[in-house]
Specification:
globular, single chain, mainly alpha, two-stranded antiparallel sheet, 4 helices, 46% helix
Length: 92
């Protein structure tokens, strides 16, 4: 799927998190391309999609992204990578 048309709840959750943070990102639809979908899984040695990468580094799937967001670790990572302003982080 795509950010505008996620194909499952996991993809929709990651899209919602990234949109909430206001981070610019690129989506890649792997649903209709079996070879691409398998290559992505093989690349990260991760058996499922969606997968989040930040500046080429594999972060994880939906559960990991949700946990990182809930604890503020995702926001901290995005600030460290220069993708999110420190001012955008709401103290918890």
């Amino acid at each position: 799927g795509t950010a505008s048309m996620p194909q499952d709840g996991y993809s929709a959750a990651i899209v919602q998190i990234l949109n909430t943070l206001g981070v610019a990102y690129r989506d890649i639809d792997v649903v209709n391309d079996h070879d691409l979908r398998q290559a992505v899984k093989d690349f990260a040695n991760w058996s499922s999609t969606p997968q989040l990468y930040v500046q080429g580094d594999f972060i994880g799937g939906c559960d990991i992204v949700r946990e990182m967001y809930a604890t503020g670790k995702l926001q901290k990572l995005l600030v460290e990578k220069g993708l999110l302003s420190p001012a955008a982080i709401i103290p918890r």
